[in-house]
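ok so for the tutorial part 2 we go from a plain amino acid sequence to predicted structure tokens. step 1 is just haveing the sequence, like this:
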Amino acid sequence: MLRIAVAAILLPFFSSSTQAQSEISGYWLEILDEPYETLSDATNLDTAQWDEQGGWDDPVFGMELGFDFTFFDGSFNTLVQPGESSIMLYGVESPYVVGYSPYTSVWMPLVELDLVDLGLTGIDSLGLSTFRWKTTGEPGSQVFAFECLNAGVYDEVAEAEDLGLTDFTNVTFQLRLYEEDGSIELHFGDSHLASNAFWTEYYSYLGLLYNLHAFLTAEAYDGGYYYDDGGIIITNANTGFSYENIDELFADLYSGPVAPFTGFPSEGRMFRYSPLVGGCHIETACNYDPAVTAPTPEDCIFPEEPGTDCDGNCLNDTTGDGLCDEMTGCTDGLACNYNPEATADDDSCDLPEEGYGCDGECLVDTDGDGVCNPFEIEGCEDPEACNYVEGPTDIVPCEYPVEYYGCDGLCINDEDEDGVCDELEVFGCTDFGACNFEWFATEDDGSCYDTLPLTLVGDTLVSVGDTLTIVVEGPVEEFNGEFNSGCAFDIELVELSSTQFVGVVQEGFDGCTLTYIEYPYYGYYPCYTEPINIVLDTTSTDVLEGSFAFRMFPNPATTEVLVELPASEKVGGSVTLVNALGQTLLTQRTAARLVTLDVSSVPNGVYHLQLGTESRKLVIQR
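step 2 — the prediction. this is what the tokens look like for a chain of 622 residues:
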């Protein structure tokens, strides 16, 4: 599964079917359409590096470039796919070793999708899915090319058999690195988006992500969750639509499809990134750099003394006395008529307009529209939009206020001035110390309570041998509570649930206290009911001493109960099983002093077994 993360956009860019340039994160971007040719005589991913039988899913492999490739402020000579559910292609500074990858230089995500070998479908007609790579050219001008050929989408392949899929998505692309100038190219080949109706909604998401690819330095990436503001490139494959930062992009992703990011890159679509070189472009400056592609005149440095060179020597000294010959003229190095030999300024300097060269050309024209960067006016043409600008030179997507908010980000209606719009207020308990604290509530409605609105009901006076039953009464469906351990000693536990406590009192019992505890879903502290005290009846005689009219065992029972009549009881009577509503469930004649009562058809619960005027609790539990 090959997933590539999306990084943040620094500057907007534009695209066309021919050529467009923009300045993105230290690189010039050209979007071109050129014929795609698959690699030949390349190194293919070895079957020994497959991580699945019959193909690859998360392969681990490394590729040596054959040269040091400069990227931002670092360089690397090896690319690694680390097998982390993605094509990440880490650039590493040391040779690749399986199982060890010092990712110190650069991280290059390519496509935001979970890719997999179509061979795992078992359908031969889908063709080969593989990775291949090669390095060509002479030292100093070598080119490394990595190709992902006919890769499938993991979700389709994993569900293919269950869903009976016959149409599958595939994508093909190449990444090329140029030694000579540090350029990067990403070139898309024939790619296909499956038309299965089942995946329609999912594909709208895939189509969006297929349109994004990114490059970023290791310093700009932190565990896959944070993207720094520097050293990042992101590109949309089909349009010039862009975002200022990753948060805005993902906000739109989660809220619904983003219209401009639809469809796969067309076959032949290529993105070429050439390193952007800033600096001084004026030849008479001491720091002139012929490689400059984005001039910054303010960075140019000229001799401190007019009429001298960068080392302080006179340009003209006809007498050889070390004193520069007197000459008037323009001494401002940025002027179009700058005379480096002039020793005194004559106020004749002709400075070009800011942002332009002496020939009237733009020094930097990011989008190639003929308007120099300093004079670009970015905005939206819709007067209803928050970023409306009259007569913009750079048209950007219109931004509208979120419902209930103004363009300033403040609520239109906020009566209590709490920063939550009146239409978005959520009423509930806002006291974090209350039993029913609700973290999502923005306005307190007076519903907070400090003790559970529940009551414990049951026997409070018991004897040894009694079955103790305590139940919770109230809206228990709203809670997720439990009984405390106050009655854990000298009581044989029969049943314990969120609503009922049942146990048989044993020898040694001398009383206990039960409380019901609720741990609120959103609250900070546990909540309790009022306690119920269970007291031992010291005036009664222990059932085990035979003072009851009859004995029964076992209790709890599963399928049958043996009832033993005392010597004083005559046979010929009846033993009756009664439920909590007083309804008779079973009746058995006492033809002998030991009676077997079949309770196998009686549901689990607490019942009463009656013999004459005597009644005993019986618990049935399986």
